[in-house]
Amino acid sequence: MEQQELLKLLLPTELIEHFDLIRIEPMEDGYHLFLDQHNIPPAEFASHKLESKGFLDQAIIRDFPLRGKACFLHLRRRKWHDHDTGRIRLQFMEYGGRGHAFNRRVRCFFKRI
């Protein structure tokens, strides 16, 4: 089984579509999964000249346990410099999945920025 197929079993589809798994660190308090947003410019600014300028501060979201241990997702979103306007741009992300605590936390994370 490939890594992407395994990730689909463990993480919400929305995260897999927009983030790369950078590393996994097993620690005493649980598993820590580090994910960075893909280096793909936001479609809503396709007509602009954008350049990736690193990441915003990471957000840590506690997900459902894995093999009886806590699971922490460390998410880093990209920020983009818009050469046309001189502004920093972020990709708009909408996440569905009514009724799931994880999805509410992810939506809150993306809305607060």
Description:
- By secondary structure, the protein is an alpha+beta fold.
- The chain has one domain (about 5-110).
- Helix content is about 20%, strand content about 40%.
- The chain is built from three helices and seven strands.
- The chain has helices spanning about 5-10, 15-20, 100-110, and strands at about 20-25, 30-35, 50-55, 60-65, 70-75, 80, 90.
- The chain has a four-stranded mixed beta sheet with strand order 1-2-5-4.
- Strand 4 (about 60-65) and strand 5 form a beta hairpin.
List the helices and strands and how they pair.
Blueprint: H1 3-10, H2 13-18, E1 19-27, E2 30-37, E3 50-55, E4 59-66, E5 69-76, E6 78-82, E7 88-89, H3 101-111
Parallel strand pairs: 2-5
Antiparallel strand pairs: 1-2, 3-6, 4-5, 6-7
The secondary structure category is alpha+beta
Biggest β-sheet: strands ordered side by side in the sheet = 1-2-5-4
Q: How many domains, in number, for the residues?
A: 1
Biggest sheet architecture: 4 strands, mixed
- Calculate the mean pLDDT score and round it: 82
Low-confidence stretches: 95-102
Q: Order of helices and strands, N to C?
A: HHEEEEEEEH
Count of distinct strands: 7
Number of DSSP helical runs: 3
Output the radius of gyration: 15 Å
CA-based shape: elongated
Sheet-strand content, in percent, reads: 35-45%
The percent of residues in helical segments reads: 10-25%
The termini sit apart by 36 Å
